[in-house]
Amino acid sequence: MNKAIALAAMSLFAGANADLQTCSTTSGYSCASSSTTPTCCFNYPGGALLQTQFWDTSPSTGPSTSWTIHGLWPDNCDGTYESSCDSTRAYTNITDILQSQGRDDLIDYMDEYWVDIDGDNESFWAHEWGKHGTCINTIDPDCYEGYTAQQEVGDFFEKVVDLFKGLDTYKALAAAGITPSTSKTYTLSAIQAALTKMHGASVYLGCSSGKLNQVWYFYNVQGNVIDGSYKAVKTLTNSGCPSTGIKYVPK
Fold first, then answer.
1. Is 82 noted as a catalytic residue in this protein?
2. What is the three-state SS of the chain?
3. Which residues form a coiled coil (predicted)?
């Protein structure tokens, strides 16, 4: 058996034997329960999950008609958060881990849509995993049945990409007539309305020198963060943009 076939077989075996524990569909959503006990089916204390995106223009990153991925962050339901929760799992070889799990298509997608402003994607991914991914308690290794080393890493990155694919910020803004321009400016309320319409709840908008460059989508989750049910909830953080005159410059 050649190396490629052996690797594929190993990945299939790992995926078939490393499933997260099944969670009841009757359990409550994170942040909406009085429980303060983290379990493999209840995200705590990071009960709010934020899918965060960038619009980088100096330098430009990613396709000219798409925002890019920043990460998936657990928030303590109040705008505060824990970070870098498990140094023993702060892996720096994310590409190697994903390749060992047969997730080559995922790597290709991340190289296009989850990109570092300085061109060092590997370090960016490692940072997002170590700082935020290790703080998501429902993907702790002991939450897996038949756990295989680093399975939670691949599951995390796959989930972030899946969420991102369902949140096309560029398309939602364009549908409201909000497109990149060197001369036009937009209001905070118009941008917020367009993205709230897509997401189902208000979002955080970030600006730098009056230029739109970030959006955070907030969720509560019923069950674990990979297989659970996601419910859009309003932002926990006030916007970092002015009310008028917001620039949305082209890449």
1. no
2. CCHHHHHHHHHHHHHHCCEECCCCCCCCCCCCCCCCCCECCECCCCCEEEEEEECCECCECCCCCCCEEEEEEEECCCCCCCCCCCHHHCCCCHHHHHHHCCCHHHHHHHHHHCCCCCCCHHHHHHHHHHHCHHHCHHHCHHHEECCCCCHHHHHHHHHHHHHHHCCCHHHHHHHCCCCCCCCCEECHHHHHHHHHHHHCCCCEEEEECCEEEEEEEEEEEECCCCCCEEEEECCCCCCECCCCCEECCCC
3. none
